[in-house]
Amino acid sequence: MKRRFLIGTGISAAALGLAGMMPRAARAFEVERSDAEWRAMLSPLEYKVMRRQGTERAFTSPLDKTYAKGTYHCRGCDLPLYSSKHKFDSGTGWPSFWKALPKAIGTMPDRTIWGVHTECHCRRCGSHLGHIFDDGPKPTGKRHCINGVSLVFKPA
Q1: Is the peptide bond before 139 cis (omega within 30 degrees of 0)?
Q2: Average pLDDT, stretch 83-97?
């Protein structure tokens, strides 16, 4: 009986972990596209990250080390999300910011086998951006750990 319980628990935990890779529940966003339209406009990696809540490999985004003045926009709908004034080097291998622009992002709990985290997404099209952690610099103490493939940098 104990073995069945452990196997069932392991399968359930794996399923919960994979739930993070499932499509976002049907919610209304200002910008809506069909799955075919998203696939046509995004690379396979961009689609995996933005539409299936995946993660790009650390230290692979050129935007991680971009520090020019400008604004980071959503790749899915071109909404301005982050200012270069709020970017910092977190050493994690992903572009990091201590705050988003006003009314740019939405958040929701992201429950995985590793716990509950705060997922952030574009408030206009729902594209997954990354996660927000409580280990950032002052004044907010937040670290918006963002997948570079979800962003487009526009110099000032």
Answers
A1: yes
A2: 97
